[in-house]
Every structure is written in C-alpha cells, then in structure tokens.
Design a protein that fits this description.
Elements (H helix, E strand, L loop, with lengths): L6 E2 L5 H10 L4 H13 L13 H10 E2 L4 E7 L5 E6 L5 E8 L4 E4 L3 E3 L8 H4 L2 E4 L2 H24 L15 E4 L9 H12 L11 E5 L3 H10 L3 E5 L5 H7 L8 H12 L7 E7 L7 H11 L4 E7 L13 H13 L4 E3 L28 H13 L1
Helix pairs in contact: 1-2, 5-6, 7-9
Bound molecules: S-adenosyl-L-homocysteine (SAH) and iron/sulfur cluster.
Iron/sulfur cluster binds next to α4.
Length: about 375
C-alpha cells in the first residue's frame, strides 16, 4: 500500500488518465473505459467496474479515489432550481446551481473560492479571494450534480407519471462557468475541467453548450481560443472605460478597446459566431438611454448578443436593481438598433440561487468587507451625481 495520497480520478483529463494507466502497462482503451465509468456512469467504487480486469481494479483501489467535494447543504426551489453548497476545506465553500428550463438543463459551476476582481455588485467579490479550485473540484461539481439529477429522473420515471417537467430539462445539457470566481484567473485547472466536459468519453457536451463567463482577462481569452474554444460570455456591464473601471476593476488593466479586440480574435476560433455580452442592470448607474447608445456603438465593433441581468441586490452593495420598466426600455433601445437582446429571468429566488448571491453566507476570511463597500459605493455614487 502506497503511503502517498490517492489520486482523485476526477482531476485527470484524458491525456493524464491514459498516462497513468500506461504506467501500469494498460492500453489507452482501458483509460477510456475507466473514464466512461467515472464520468458517464458516475461510479464512485472500483468494485462496480466489472468489465475491468481484476488486477487493474486492485491497482486502482490501491492508488486512486473518485470523490467530489463534500456537500454541506442542498436546497430545492419551488421552480425546480437546485443548489448545492460544497465544503472545500478551511472554512471555504462554493456553490453549484442546476436550472431546469423547457428545452435544456443548465448547471452553473464555480471556479474559485472567492474572487480577486472585486466587482462592487457581486457578493463573491466581497468575500475576497480564498483559493483556486482544482480540476477535480470543478469537475466534481458536474459529477455530483449529474448523479443527483439522474437520480431524480429515474425516480420520476418509476413513480411519478404526472411529473410536468419535460425530459430535456431534467438532464444537464449545458454548463455555464458563472458561479463563484473568475474562471480565466484559474486557467490551467479550468482548462482541464473544460476538456472533460466536451470529451465524448466523459460528459460529451457540445462546445456550444459549455460557456465560460469572464470579466475580461484578455491574455487568457486568447489562450482559451487556441486551447479549447467554447462559447464565451463577457461581463461588459459598462459601455465606457470610466464607468467600467469602477464596475469591473479589471478594466483598469485591460480596458475596453483591448477587450473588444480580444473578443474579435476569440471569434476566429469560437464554436458560436457571436460573443454574449452580459450587462447587469443597476438603477441610475449604467441603465440610461445614453448608456444604451454607447453600447450600440460597441456592438458595431464585435458580433454579439446582449444578455441583460437584473441586479440581485444584497445589503453591503448599496446598489439597486433598475426598475422593470427601465430594463424593458433599455432592451427595446438595443433591439431597435438590430441587436439580439434577452433579459435574464431570475430563478431560484427562494433559495438565493441567483447570480452573485452564491455562498453569500460564507465567512469573509480576508476581511475585504471592511474595506470594499465604502470604496465601491462612494466611487459609483460620485459617477452618478
Ligand atoms: N467572474 C466571471 C464569472 C462569474 S460571475 C464574470 O464575472 O463573468 C457570473 C455573472 O454574474 C457575471 O456576469 C456577473 O457580472 C454576474 N453577477 C455578479 N453579481 C451579480 C449580482 N449581484 N446580480 C446579478 N448578476 C451578478
Ligand atoms: Fe469576480 Fe465575476 Fe464576481 Fe466580478 S462578477 S467579483 S469577476 S465573480
């Protein structure tokens, strides 16, 4: 028995798994078989893998494990949304949300515990940065949720014939990296997870149905385009540098012109022929007709669609959601200019599962709360007044 930590197979992409199996004299197809057991069938015990040679299973049992982060709580919303809080050690927690819709089931997953970007409208930003998640912890969220969602589907098939939710909404067909953290600031670990998501022997998701959302980490957008092009959402949130410097502080490092150029370079590799611009609707901050006009100018520079996100308020932010009528009018202004624009529906409200509300009850270990609110709110109010 080895004294080293067992290798968590959830963290190994195809190349690493093939390498591991090869070191034990196994052929690449053994790695594929193993990968299917782990990710497609959601096995967590090597004993179940009956079509693998006994000796191979013994080696796996001696040296490897399959485990997602521990779940500390689970919530179900009246609208079918499910949310899991995972304990990733040392008082750090991350969240994962499953959102069933008519024609799809979307899993929203986290990439970091906390976030360094510190956007003033985001509760993750207020926690400060705790640590990067590993590939095993990122893919572990999908592995765990897939098992849970599948368990629901099987029990509904057996018993509840009257279940109204259509079947496509009861499997995970889409993954969005829109939970906690900035995925492109944890590039290598996120890349390993993305590769597993689209691998036919693992989750087999279409690249078009896997979305990375970024606040605009320009150099890593270029790398992602080369290494693993998937759908890209960019958190724009402001149509000019003066405001974006405040709302998305990373803009000071990578201003709009640089970001838009990176979007165009990404489109050369992307599986979709547009970038989704996410735009949070903050009352009196970024939601005027003038802002809409500036956005329309930006849209002339990049093939894009807009997703307007009604702000989900939380006490420390000092910010308010734009009124519904303003959001509708803002969307109309963009649509009148020929831009495809959607307004995000708020889901899972009763279980605090919406964007930016994730793990809001986790302790702030970096004490950023004591520093950030004043700075952020005052800066934005100056802009307004
Ligand atoms: N760090 C990445 C991905 C995680 S945040 C990014 O910023 O893109 C995912 C989305 O949720 C982003 O568009 C973000 O701006 C948005 N968001 C954050 N806080 C929010 C809040 N309080 N209300 C609504 N959307 C929020
Ligand atoms: Fe980080 Fe995204 Fe939240 Fe900004 S919105 S603090 S980049 S997680």
């Amino acid at each position: 028995m080895s004294s080293t930590e067992p290798i968590n197979l959830l963290g190994l992409d195809t190349a690493a798994l093939t390498d591991l199996v090869g070191r034990w004299g196994g052929k690449p197809f053994r790695a594929k078989q193993l990968q299917r057991w782990v990710h497609q069938r959601g096995a967590d015990s090597f004993d179940d893998m009956t079509d693998l040679a006994r000796e191979f299973r013994q080696q796996l049992t001696a040296h490897c494990s399959i485990h997602a982060p521990d779940v500390s709580s689970e919530h179900r919303s009246a609208d079918g949304t499910r949310k899991w809080l995972f304990d990733v050690g040392k008082n750090n927690a991350i969240e994962t949300v499953f959102i069933p819709e008519d024609d799809r089931g979307t899993l929203c997953i986290s990439s970091q515990a906390g976030c360094t970007v510190a956007c003033p409208f985001c509760s993750t930003g207020y926690q400060g940065f705790n640590r990067n998640l590993t590939t095993a912890e990122i893919i572990g969220q999908l592995w765990y949720a897939k098992r849970a969602v599948q368990a629901d589907l099987s029990s509904a098939r057996v018993g509840d014939q009257a279940e109204a939710v259509p079947e496509p909404a009861r499997v995970i067909s889409n993954v969005v990296m829109m939970g906690m953290g900035e995925p492109l600031l944890n590039y290598d670990q996120v890349l390993g997870a993305l590769r597993l998501m689209i691998d036919d022997n693992a989750y087999g998701l279409s690249r078009r149905r896997v979305t990375v959302s970024t606040s605009g980490v320009v150099p890593m957008m270029d790398r992602l385009g080369r290494d693993c092009p998937v759908a890209l959402a960019v958190s724009l949130h402001a149509p000019n540098d003066a405001l974006r410097d405040k709302l998305v502080p990373l803009n000071r490092k990578h201003p709009l012109a640089e970001l838009l150029a990176a979007c165009n370079r990404y489109l050369e590799h992307a599986p979709r022929d547009f970038i989704t611009f996410e735009y949070i609707m903050l009352d009196g901050v970024n939601d005027t007709d003038q802002h809409a006009r500036e956005l329309i100018d930006i849209a002339k520079q990049v093939r894009c669609k807009f997703n307007l996100i009604p702000f989900n308020p939380f006490p420390q932010s000092g910010l308010k959601r734009s009124p519904a009528a303003r959001i509708r009018l803002f969307a109309q202004r963009l649509m009148d200019a020929g831009l495809v624009t959607t307004v995000r529906k708020t889901r899972g409200d009763d279980i605090a599962a919406a964007c930016g509300q994730l793990a809001g009850d986790v302790k702030d270990r970096t004490r950023i709360n004591e520093r950030l609110p004043d700075r952020a709110v005052i800066a934005i109010k100056q802009e307004r007044g």
